[in-house]
Amino acid sequence: MPFYHYRASDPRGNIIQGTLEAREERQVVLHLQQGGLIPLRIGTEEAKPGGWQLSLKWARVRRVSPGEVVHFTNELAALLKAGLPLERSLQALLEVTGGKGMKAVISQVLRDLQAGKSLSEALSRHRAFSPLYVSLVQAGETGGFLEVALARLGEYLKTVSEFKSYLTTALIYPMILAGVGSLSVVFMLVYVVPRFESFFKEMGQTLFWSTSLLLSFSNAFRAYWWVGGILAGVAALILIRLLRTAKGQMAVDRAKLRAPLVGDLTKRISAAFFAKTLGTLLNNGVPLVAALRVVTTSVPNRYMAQALEGVQAEVEKGQPLSAMLKKVGLLPELFLQMVAIGEETGHLGEMLLAAADSLEGDARSAVRRLMALMEPVLILTMSLVVAFIIVSLLMPILNLYEISF
Fold first, then answer.
1. Cα angle at 191 between 189 and 197, to 5 degrees?
2. Which of 110, 128, 157 is the last residue before a domain boundary?
3. What number is the average pLDDT over the span 241-249?
4. DSSP notation for 287-315
5. Is residue 61 scored above 50 in pLDDT?
6. Cα-Cα-Cα-Cα dihedral of 360, 362, 366, 369, to 10°?
7. 322 and 214 in one domain?
8. What does the pLDDT average to over 277-285?
9. Rounded to 5 degrees, what angle do the CA atoms 381, 256, 339 make?
């Protein structure tokens, strides 16, 4: 369904702007009128009299970060647990929320509640809340344990966010190391080596093969660097366009699963997200089949997510979950055994969460081992390249003065 940007006025004359997802414009008008608002302007695109500046301002104002969603969830759970009604809790959050994007979302959710909608229906209209989030809230509303569902949801979102941050942070140092090393090599090829080349020409002696190779490579790099830049730009453009297609994303994710060293880590990370999400849904009262419809969106690897989509149809026919997951052939054996035990004992949700914690711990250990391996490999590689350049430049000079090692 398309998203409609609206501009409306409340009974006090205050101007309110927001975004709603609806099938047609008439539904947006009806929704605003039910909330006591007077529609002023509705369109699929926001009017932009100020050009790019207004467009960027709109994007900046309306953006809601994952951290804001986690904070909103935890605060709402705490207020509901303290005994405050839902609408009063949202009004309190509206007053203390600083982010303009989150403030607009809470304001719209509050108006939806006042118009007679449920919290899950109100949240489903906003992109900031995933299908998983909406499903857990809906289960909490149905079962009468909304504050418990929100507390568990906040814990889940925090754990997932911390795990993603850990994986991202672990890659920063190797990337910096590789970048600095590459810049050092480029500096030597562009600035240092040409200075020695003029000196070697004055010497007039036969150069070693390594020195000749280095000088040829330096000359080629300085003369045709723009060709390499163009080729790199074209390759990057093709890769970006490829990654924007479903087939391209699927091919990359399939390669991640089959890659040495990284493949096993990718499987563990995807299985951890799958287990954490499914276990959280089941523990909050969401039926297994309905939970499986939502859970595939949490798996970061699209190839594995596609393979897991067929599991839901088989489980709906009465097949055991563990057997169907085993047929996928992409999940760790220990995880499959824990799922089977959970089905046998009737504690599938608890076993999935335990499996998620185990897989997350294994993934963290694997990342630490991989980083411990990458750092010395990068340092050794850069050291060998720099050593080759230095030795190739010094050997003719040492040979000239007949200095032996």
1. 75
2. 157
3. 80
4. -HHHHHHHHGGG-S-HHHHHHHHHHHHHH
5. no
6. 120
7. yes
8. 82
9. 130
In terms of domains, do 340 and 366 share one? yes
110 vs 158: CA distance, rounded Å: 24
Confidence check: pLDDT of 207 > 50? yes
Q: Is the pLDDT of residue 235 over 50?
A: yes
> Mean pLDDT throughout 104-129?
86
Q: Above 60 in pLDDT, residue 15? A: yes
Provide the phi-psi class of 83: left if phi over 0, else alpha when psi is between -120 and 50, else beta. Answer: left
Distance (Å) of CA 50 to CA 1, 17, 239 = 28, 17, 34
Query: Where residue 96 falls among pLDDT bands split at 50, 70, 90?
Result: confident
Whole-structure pTM value: 0.61
Domain count, the chain: 3
| CATH code: domain of residue 400 | 1.20.81.30
- For residues 237 and 365, membership in a common domain is answered with yes
Structural domain containing residue 130: 66-157
Residues 125 and 38 both lie in one domain:
no
**In the numeric block, which tokens belong to residue 365?**
């250990």
Do residues 175 and 71 both lie within one domain? no
Q: Which two tokens stand for residue 204?
A: 């007039």
Task: Determine the Cα–Cα distance for residues 331 and 321; give it in Å rounded to an integer.
Answer: 13
Q: Is the pLDDT of residue 224 over 80?
A: yes
- CB-CB contact of 267 with 257 (8 Å): yes
What's the rounded Cα separation, in Å, for the pair 275 and 174?
30
Q: Both 57 and 185 in a single domain?
A: no
149 and 213 part of one domain: no
Other beta carbons within 10 Å of 390: 12
pLDDT at 42 over 60: yes
- 280 contacts 357 by C-beta, under 8 angstroms: no
Does the pLDDT of residue 404 top 50, yes or no? no
The pLDDT-based confidence of 38 (bands split at 50, 70, 90) is: low
Query: Is the distance from CB of 128 to CB of 63 less than 8 angstroms?
Result: no
The answer to whether residue 219 sits within a structural domain is yes
